[in-house]
Specification:
The complex is a heterodimer of chains A (463) and B (241).
Chain A lengths: L3 H19 L7 H9 L3 H6 L6 E5 L4 H14 L4 E3 L7 H9 L12 E5 L5 H8 L3 E4 L7 H4 L2 H13 L6 E5 L3 H4 L9 E6 L26 E7 L2 E5 L12 E8 L4 E6 L6 E6 L4 H16 L4 H9 L7 E7 L2 E7 L3 H12 L6 E5 L18 H4 L5 E5 L3 H10 L7 E3 L3 H11 L5 E6 L1 H13 L10
Parallel strand pairs in A: 1-3, 1-4, 2-3, 4-5, 5-6, 6-9, 13-17, 14-15, 14-17, 15-16
Antiparallel strand pairs in A: 7-8, 9-10, 10-11, 12-13
Helix pairs in contact in A: 1-2, 2-5, 4-10, 4-11, 6-8, 10-11
Chain B lengths: L1 E7 L10 H12 L4 E7 L12 E4 L4 H11 L2 H11 L3 E5 L1 H6 L2 E3 L6 E2 L6 E17 L5 E13 L7 E5 L9 E2 L1 E3 L2 E4 L5 H4 L1 H13 L13 H17 L1
Parallel strand pairs in B: 1-2, 1-3, 3-4, 4-12, 5-7
Antiparallel strand pairs in B: 5-6, 7-8, 7-9, 9-10, 11-12
Helix pairs in contact in B: 1-6
The chains are: A alpha/beta (463), B alpha/beta (241).
Chain lengths: 463, 241
């Protein structure tokens, strides 16, 4: 039974939530902030009541999709997850998700906490939540003005994980050296996932590598295969550190325009199963492997997990589609070089010559520093682009990036107004055609709001 | 005419999108019909330190900066000084700028020596300067995004690249931003800097091409996109930083 302070915080948060929802607002953060202000341990007090415990999903890219996959898997197994689905993933987002699923006497209406945690918040969040399972998908540079440096962040996460009890199981990406080595400071169970298809990836590290040096001895890493940025089959010739054995592994990945087929293998049990991931892109195959590895850590059945993945629907800006004026708008949230490269990789590997609506903004949630676009591989994208309509608070920076990537001026058009930009991009696509929308977080919110007002069916991002 | 660009430590000093500076130099030379080659120069002995016309040296994470500092303390630092004496240009940003100075003085512990090509010294500061940075100079405005805790102070042989209008610049005290000394420039402008500050890109190009050519004159380019990006970013710096 939660203590008196948690009861008060719960009531105050719920009143805030009711108020916001009555005025038609999302309530994905503020109610949580109210509850946390009254009771800083609110998250811990309520999550301790959950029968199946708590799983945290963190990392730079893929946490929203991975957490949603795991939520679907847990539901197929009959669990009732409390999940911060909105992607509002700071402490207050977790608290808000709990508030949406508690009674007025602070009893949780659910038996499993599934929380997507911002990687910078992970060290403090695991302290409050005392999770059964912590998943880390990958660590790339992201919004440098907020997080500063990746090495420092990895060190902080490693220290926080080292402080967890031995009963907490880590689920880590073996192919990302910064993530795989997070387990070094711990003497407890870790489940590693990765890709073992020799046909996936090349041999040359990409320009935006964040971890070309060994996280343990700082000497240069050697790659026999590079999948994306610093993710791949790595080893350190100097100190002998190597990619850890994969407990959940894809030995074959077949990428298609609407999804991927994985051949799943693992060290334990020797299972070989076909897995269908119904959203395109190699990075979504990684997200599926992370979710399957987490399901194993939670002792959820593999057959249920595979069935749940097969029925998966993508989230806000993760290749979801919205119909508008006889065209399909395909939304891709971009926020850092690695995510951008993975997303355009998914586009180009399907042979598309996209008509783009590209939107760059620089509010806090986008990252105030737009420098990252110069690390993203626009040079790979530009030759395939049919036309780009460009908008956002920093539209001119984005137009300039396309120019220097070699996109001819006559294929670039800057349209400042959100609605006018959508109209123009839609008009340029043929009836029945596709517009690929690449946008940063707040730019995507603005574009979706315009579409909703224009009568398109736009899912509310809390679902 | 051809242009030779050296990218210093691209594997270690490569955060904050500074790669855009190399893209800008290369494209602006190519658009004028020149052949361009970019070569990486990283840790370990360089086989051809006399090759580059211009060096680019970007910012990095602390870990990268330690390794690079140690590398430049040896033969490679001497080779870089010799190259500059021979007429090569350098454009450096943030960590690269700091490493080209005399030394970096941390909060505790001994000073870390730099290459000493620029007459500047950097001290560790407590508060990190993060935000849009707008400066003015007799040759044109400068816009970028700063993200540094080091405070850099200029000696008599270096002159400031610009005067701060919005943001902090070198040290947050004397309103200076960046340093120029001969054909060597250092600054705190990420963004990337050169695409949005095309006059500075062309200044560096002219210096670089001048190393192996007489009387270089650069044809004007259509900088409509560049100036529009500069204007939009400057407005953000003036109103939202």
């Amino acid at each position: 039974m939660p203590d008196a302070l948690a009861l008060i915080a719960n009531a105050a948060g719920k009143i805030t939530r009711e108020g916001l929802r009555a005025t038609g607002r999302g309530a994905t953060a503020l109610p949580g902030l109210v509850a946390l202000t009254l009771d800083p341990n609110f998250i811990g007090a309520l999550s301790a009541e959950l029968e199946h415990g708590v799983a945290c999903v963190s990392g730079t890219n893929g946490k929203t999709t991975t957490a949603r996959m795991l939520a679907d898997i847990s539901r197929t197994a009959g669990w009732d997850p409390i999940h911060n689905r909105s992607g509002s993933n700071l402490d207050r987002g977790v608290a808000a998700a709990l508030l949406a699923h508690t009674t007025w006497s602070a009893e949780p209406q659910g038996n499993f906490g599934l929380f997507e945690i911002d990687e910078a918040s992970l060290p403090s969040a695991v302290g409050h939540l005392r999770p059964r399972v912590v998943v880390v998908t990958n660590l790339f540079r992201d919004q440098m003005d907020r997080y500063f440096e990746l090495d420092t962040l990895a060190k902080k996460i490693g220290e926080a994980l080292a402080g967890l009890p031995a009963t907490t199981i880590l689920v880590l990406n073996a192919d990302d050296p910064l993530v795989a080595t997070l387990a070094l400071g711990r003497d407890a169970r870790t489940i590693f996932f990765g890709v073992d298809d020799p046909d996936v990836g090349g041999v040359v590290p990409q320009a935006i590598s964040d971890a070309t040096r060994c996280p343990r001895c700082k000497e240069p890493l050697k790659y026999s295969r590079v999948v994306l940025a610093h993710v791949g089959d790595w080893s350190c010739p100097a100190c002998g550190l190597t990619r850890p054995p994969r407990d959940v592994s894809a030995t074959k990945v077949v990428l298609g325009p609407d999804g991927s087929e994985l051949a799943l293998a693992g060290l334990i049990g020797g299972v070989f199963e076909a897995v269908r991931v119904p959203i395109p892109g190699l990075y979504n195959a990684y997200n599926a492997l992370a979710a399957l590895a987490a399901a194993r850590a939670l002792d959820l059945g593999l057959a249920d997990a595979i069935r749940a993945l097969g029925n998966f629907r993508p989230a806000f800006g993760r290749l979801e589609t919205i119909e508008h004026q006889g065209r399909t708008l395909r939304f891709i949230l971009v926020k850092n070089p690695a995510g951008f490269n993975a997303a355009i990789g998914a586009l180009l590997e399907t042979g598309r010559t996209p008509r783009l609506l590209a939107a760059l903004s620089d509010r806090d949630a986008d990252g105030r520093d737009v420098s990252w676009i110069w690390d993203a591989d626009f040079e790979a994208l530009a030759p395939s682009v049919e036309h780009a309509v460009i908008t956002g608070l920093r539209s001119r920076d984005l137009a300039l990036r396309f120019k220097y990537a070699g996109l001819p001026n006559e294929r670039i058009e800057v349209v400042d107004d959100w609605a006018a930009a959508i109209d123009r991009a839609t008009a340029l696509a043929p009836e029945g055609g596709e517009v690929v929308v690449l946008a940063t977080y707040t730019a995507m919110q603005s574009l979706r709001a315009v579409l909703a007002r224009a009568g398109a069916t736009v899912p509310f991002w809390e679902d | 005419m051809d242009l030779r660009i050296a990218h210093l430590y691209p594997d270690l000093m490569n955060i904050y999108g500074d790669r855009g500076n190399v893209i800008a130099l290369a494209q602006r030379a190519k658009w004028r019909g020149m052949a361009v080659e970019v070569r990486p120069y990283s840790v370990g002995e360089w086989s051809d330190p006399d090759w580059p016309d211009v060096w680019f040296f970007g910012g990095g994470q602390d870990q990268g900066q330690d390794i690079v500092g140690a590398d430049l303390a040896g033969k490679n630092g001497a080779a870089l000084r010799k190259s500059v004496d021979g007429g090569a240009a350098i454009f450096s940003v943030c960590g690269g700028y700091q490493l080209l100075g005399h030394e970096y003085i941390p909060e505790t512990g001994p000073a870390i020596p730099g290459v000493g090509i620029l007459d500047v010294t950097t001290r560790a500061g407590k508060k990190r300067f993060v935000g849009n940075l707008l400066a003015d100079s007799p040759d044109g405005p400068l816009i970028g995004f700063e993200n540094h805790s080091g405070r850099t102070y200029l000696g008599p042989r270096a002159r400031p690249l610009g005067t701060v209008i919005a943001g902090n610049g070198n040290n947050g005290e004397d309103k200076t931003e960046g340093a120029v000394q001969g054909r060597v420039i250092g600054c705190y402008l990420h963004g990337s800097c050169l695409p949005k500050n095309p006059w500075l890109a062309d200044r560096l190009l002219a210096w670089a091409l001048g190393r192996r050519n007489e009387a270089v004159s650069l044809d004007p380019l259509d900088d409509k996109y560049e100036l529009a990006a500069r204007e939009q970013a400057s407005e953000v710096a003036r109103t939202r930083t």
